[in-house]
Amino acid sequence: DYSCTVSSCLKVHMRKHSGEKPYKCTDCDYSCTMASSLKLHMRTHSGEKPYKCTECDYSCRRLGLLKEHILRHKGLKPYKCSECDFSCTVSSSLKVHLRKHSGEKPFKCTECDYKCAIYSNLKLHMRIHSSDKPYKCTDCDYSSARLGNLKEHILKHSGEMPYKCNECNYSSTSSSNLKTHMRTHSGEKPYKCNECDYSCARLGVLKEHILRHSDLKPYKCTDCDYSSARL
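Predicted structure:
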């Protein structure tokens, strides 16, 4: 039911149906339906960032990005969630946030059944299949697919444990370990078995529990025929 007042707009719109992309990049295989889109794309090759912030040294390729950046200086968050009190300066951030409420996970792995709400998470996940671990420790041969994991690993060399429990003297190099530890105080057991009423605080413990229902014993002794569901 699309309609417009200018014939050229209709011509561009019809390309969505035909798949025609007459504007092609000379530096890569990018193509698009609009000359203005190609012009913006070419800035990725030239590095041109004509839109500049008057408050700081930020610059960008798109006017829309500059407008959103300026909102941060003003402290304005015009994009608000209708389901909770979340608000943000960037419309795309609200779009991603709304997937938490809808459960939508549009980014799917082509190698397994993994899917997620954020493209960058899929990109990180794909390193599991490719064995790409670009983040490397300078003190040992450890490498990781995630920068955050490398940062936590480096703390092990320094002995620093910045994540501290406010209920006891527990501390850790990992924020996720602290989060799991806090469940010992709160009693929270978010991982639940769908075969019985068992629940626990750690995903790994639930996986071991599920093996009991399946009779699988993947941990085997190399000296005899003993095997177990638990390591």
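Summary: Residues 55 and 73 are 8 Å apart (CA to CA).
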